[in-house]
């Protein structure tokens, strides 16, 4: 579909979404009206020279301007109307169109937007610089390094899960893939948007957080031996000390065993508490009592948040087990992202750069121990343990309990 029908203008107002800054809204609306006028002229067989703005927007990836807002063609209303007007057909779709296109006017994020959102947006974990706030309620995530140009596992996974009736409610909303400045990004829901000074926790899931093909090379490497010794001089065996080299598999398993991943099936990557900088140096949080203490610190005295988070995680687990997608895919290196403030609670499944289809039509249950070739990664085993840890962590003595449960965001 190369274009949408010409939209008529009426006096019916369109309510302004609270999260969309007026400046961006009005700029997008003006550009939209310009294009309506151009389409109207062309529909009357008049010659119209495309403006620079139209050429710029049409040059975007896949003709994004007209493809992102689709509607049934409507006849042009020739009746004069002197009232201040905006397009009225499908107002919710129009607002979505305006919101998405407003992002392009400041992509990936203007200095003013970054400044205005600096108090509410941060990257808690992951590769530095891999995320950037793109606009009201969205972020851009950079394509994983090393991906083949024609193969983007994270994009493919988000598109598949967004179409899955079981999983679309437990992942960030996925909008599109795009190119900017010679790099590829995917645009996702900003999970922090709308929260006020929240508690945030990023939890890496699974007993194995590396792909099988990452450790298929059995060649022993000196650089990995040096890394191991720096972390723990007593970790290498006598044979490894003599060879001064270890295999990639040995090193990766050593890293998993140093955290809680190998035994518990999850590890706490980072925690952000209100008014404090993120806690990211959590490699030594390994034992069950340490995990429980970290969770208790995260929850503080908020029993209502604990109950809502546990319920949401059980919902994620239930939907995960219902999904046909996860029966045939290994979910390596994915995370559970938990947020709550005084009013709301949210938890989502994120990060799919290492999600892969199981070869040969095999199935996985996500709880069995990993052996080379079986593609089990322990995601559900870890989620079982995480839910148990949250439900049983001993919280500090609390005062009056809130009368109502917090809203659980999806």
TrEMBL record:
Listed SUPFAM superfamilies: SAICAR synthase-like
Entry-linked Pfam families: IPK
Region named Disordered: 70-89
GO cellular component, one term: nucleus
InterPro entries: IPK, IPK_sf
Biased composition annotated in UniProt, kind: Low complexity: 78-89
Top-level EC class: transferase
Keywords from the named record: Kinase, Transferase
GO terms for biological process, alphabetical: inositol phosphate biosynthetic process; phosphatidylinositol phosphate biosynthetic process
EC id: 2.7.-.-
GO MF terms, alphabetically ordered: inositol hexakisphosphate kinase activity
Family in the record: Belongs to the inositol phosphokinase (IPK) family.
Protein name per the record: Kinase
The organism of origin for this protein: Manduca sexta (Tobacco hawkmoth)
């Amino acid at each position: 579909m190369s274009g949408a029908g010409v939209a008529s203008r009426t006096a019916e107002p369109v309510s302004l979404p609270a999260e969309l800054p007026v400046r961006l809204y009005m700029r997008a609306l003006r550009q939209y009206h310009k294009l309506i006028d151009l389409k109207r002229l062309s529909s009357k067989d008049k010659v119209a020279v495309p403006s620079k703005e139209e050429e710029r927007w049409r040059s975007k990836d896949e003709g994004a301007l007209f493809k992102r807002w689709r509607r049934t063609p409507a006849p042009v209303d020739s009746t004069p109307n002197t009232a201040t007007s905006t397009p009225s057909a499908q107002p919710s779709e129009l607002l979505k169109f305006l919101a998405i296109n407003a992002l392009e006017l400041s992509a990936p994020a203007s200095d003013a937007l970054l400044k205005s959102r600096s108090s509410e947006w941060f990257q808690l974990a992951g590769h530095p610089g891999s995320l950037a706030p793109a606009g009201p309620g969205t972020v851009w995530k950079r394509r994983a390094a090393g991906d083949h140009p024609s193969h983007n596992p994270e994009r493919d996974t988000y598109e598949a899960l967004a179409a899955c009736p079981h999983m679309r409610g437990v992942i960030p909303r996925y909008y599109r893939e795009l190119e900017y400045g010679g790099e590829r990004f995917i645009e996702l829901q900003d999970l922090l948007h709308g929260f006020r000074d929240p508690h945030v926790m990023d939890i890496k899931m699974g007993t194995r957080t590396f792909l099988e093909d990452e450790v298929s090379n059995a060649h022993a490497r000196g650089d990995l031996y040096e890394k191991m010794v720096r972390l723990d001089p007593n970790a290498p065996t006598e044979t490894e000390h003599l060879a001064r080299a270890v295999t990639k598999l040995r090193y990766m398993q050593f890293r998993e065993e140093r955290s809680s991943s190998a035994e518990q099936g999850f590890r706490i990557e980072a925690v952000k508490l209100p008014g404090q900088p993120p806690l990211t140096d959590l490699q030594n949080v390994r034992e069950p009592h340490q995990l429980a203490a970290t969770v208790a610190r995260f929850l503080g005295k908020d029993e209502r948040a604990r109950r809502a988070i546990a319920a949401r995680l059980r919902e994620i687990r239930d939907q995960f087990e219902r999904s046909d997608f996860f029966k045939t895919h290994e979910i390596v290196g994915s995370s559970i992202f938990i947020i709550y403030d005084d009013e709301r609670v949210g938890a989502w499944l994120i990060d799919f750069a290492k999600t892969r289809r199981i070869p040969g039509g095999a199935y996985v249950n996500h709880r069995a121990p990993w052996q080379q070739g079986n593609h089990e990664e322990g995601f559900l085993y870890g989620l079982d343990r995480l839910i148990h840890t949250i439900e049983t962590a001993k919280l500090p003595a609390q005062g009056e309990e809130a009368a109502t449960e917090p809203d659980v965001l999806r």
